[in-house]
Amino acid sequence: VIDQLATDLVAALGEDRVITDRGALAGLETDWTGRFRGRARLAVRPASVGEVAAALRVCAAHRVAVVPQGGNTGLVGGAVPLDAVVLSTTRLTDLGAVDELAGEVTVGAGATLEAVRRHAAAAGLAPAVDLASRGSATIGGMIATDAGGIHALRHGSMRHQVRGIEAVLADGTIVGGSTGLATDRPGLHLPSVLAGSEGTLAVITRARLRLIPVWPERATALAAFGDLASAVAAARRLRDRLPDLDAVEYLDAAALALGAARAGQGDPFGRPAAGVGRGVASLLVETAARRSTLEELGAALGSLPGLLDATVVDDGPGRRRLWAIREGVTEAIAALGVPHKLDVAVPPAGLAAFVAALEPVVARAAPDARTFVFGHLALGNLHVNVLGPAPDDDRVDDAVLRLILEHGGSIAAEHGIGRAKARWLALAETPAETAVRAAIRAALDPHGLLNPGVLAP
Ligand SMILES: Cc1cc2nc3c(=O)[nH]c(=O)nc-3n(C[C@H](O)[C@H](O)[C@H](O)COP(=O)(O)OP(=O)(O)OC[C@H]3O[C@@H](n4cnc5c(N)ncnc54)[C@H](O)[C@@H]3O)c2cc1C
Fold it and tell me: Ligand 1: which of 145, 165, 445 to mutate, judged by most atoms within 8 Å of the beta carbon?
């Protein structure tokens, strides 16, 4: 009975930790894109690991499903409740002292990336993963989705940053904690088990993160190529030539024009958009080091076959202008409608062939759709965004995800599976892999209470 659940949660946590007001719940029931909507029974906002454990014990006793939610910036509907309790981590915001020698910090799972960045910056350090959603995305959500972001080509994704983790299982058992020593390896690496688990194995409450130096010098370029194949070949050469390469981001002509317009700038190359993957293929390239890399970046770009045009800067305002184009794309698309977001990856050698095949495939599934393709090119990671089909019409999702599998790619590069892609998981893994995942899930959460419907067909 819902009333008894609320009463028991209030008794365990206190009234101010339990939200039952429908108006207050509304913001927790829809995802960032507006494509996935659900209904929360109620929400809890615990402020300590003990309170998380208490909340989960009560929910387990009632056999009620629980959906962990951080900043709710996820792009696969994974934090949307379907008649479940939302466990919001936004009060778990502790920031521990930065260990400057080890280059590590322990933070609450609900701390935003931006808060951790500011905290670490005081010691000249920074988290290695960075995303445009940094102001709202939380460390717990980033670990749970194994977020990648713009520097993953240099530092890896979130799973490579976690030195220790504390989490609570569905029955309220607290696990983890860590000495924080990189050499502390007592067998099973719990952070690796929970990275990418999308709230299905445990609620992450705290993490010890590796930090990297804040590079004092950055040089940034926007470079245009005649087609995607030339841009991919260029990225390969830049990786060879530039040891301090920090980002290689791709924008197709449509994404570039949209991002530039959103940033209040004209198309930097003054050319019209020309359909999916056609027209100018742009790369936003950045190097970061302790010394100036402006000349090195300029020289490396100058040597690239197929380069049509480039602008290279190392001053703050100039760099921010270029990044505003790339970072504005996601929001600009969302401002036009509810997108179908297909975050996929193909081995870089196959990127151009995949994108060439994309246009007819999208056109068949959704004739009036508009498509934007951008992403973290050096890792073969493309965000295919399709505007037009209704939120619950998944024909275009089906067509694009099948195409990616035909090209030997991955249906989930960095945003996760969530609810959005659960249907296609069986196509992307073997029955044995499905069985392994189900067995681990059943061992940690035998009643299937944590995020049912996510990461499962
Ligand atoms: C503008 C924009 C740009 C983005 N850029 C990138 C990008 O470059 N790279 C990238 O990888 N992603 C990107 N994202 C997606 C998103 O920001 C990431 O997926 C992020 O990691 C989600 O964090 P969150 O705190 O918002 O998690 P939520 O959206 O709240 O949750 C995401 C998933 O994690 C689970 N979860 C959340 N907190 C916990 C916890 N404490 N314990 C267990 N499970 C938990 C949820 O149940 C859900 O399944 C972007 C999003 C936007 C809006």
Answer: 145
Cβ of 130 closer than 6 Å to ligand 1, yes or no, is no
Give the Å distance between the CA of 22 and the centre of ligand 1.
24
Whether residue 341 contacts residue 415, with contact meaning beta carbons closer than 8 Å, is answered with yes
| Closest alpha carbon to 260 in 248, 275, 272 | 272
What is the pLDDT at residue 44?
98
For tokens 């004209």, the residue is 266
Closest by CA to 30, choosing from 82, 106, 68, 97, is: 82
Which pLDDT score is estimated for 183?
61
Q: Comparing C-alpha atoms, which of 301, 313, 222 is closest to residue 260? A: 222
Is 137 touching ligand 1 by the criterion CB < 6 Å? yes
Which stretch of 94-103, 113-122, 177-186, 344-353 has the lowest confidence by average pLDDT?
Answer: 177-186
SS3 of residue 54 by DSSP: helix
Closest-lying ligand 1 atom to the alpha carbon of residue 376: 8
Question: Atom of ligand 1 at shortest distance to CA of 418?
Answer: 49
- CA 40, distance to chain mean position in Å, is 23
Q: Which atom of ligand 1 is nearest to the CA of 143?
A: 21
- Residue 330's nearest CA partner among 400, 402, 414 is 414
SS3 state of residue 264? coil
The yes-or-no verdict on residue 312 having pLDDT over 80 is yes
Distance CA 36, CA 42 (A): 18
Mean pLDDT of the chain: 94
Structure tokens at 171: 């029955």
For residue 138, give the DSSP letter.
B
DSSP secondary structure of 350-402: GHHHHHHHHHHHHHHH-TT-EEEEEEEGGGTEEEEEEESS-TT--HHHHHHHH
Tell me if 132 CB under 6 Å of ligand 1.
Answer: yes
Please tell me if the CB atom of residue 32 comes closer than 6 angstroms to any atom of ligand 1: yes
**How many CB atoms lie under 10 A from the CB of residue 206?**
24
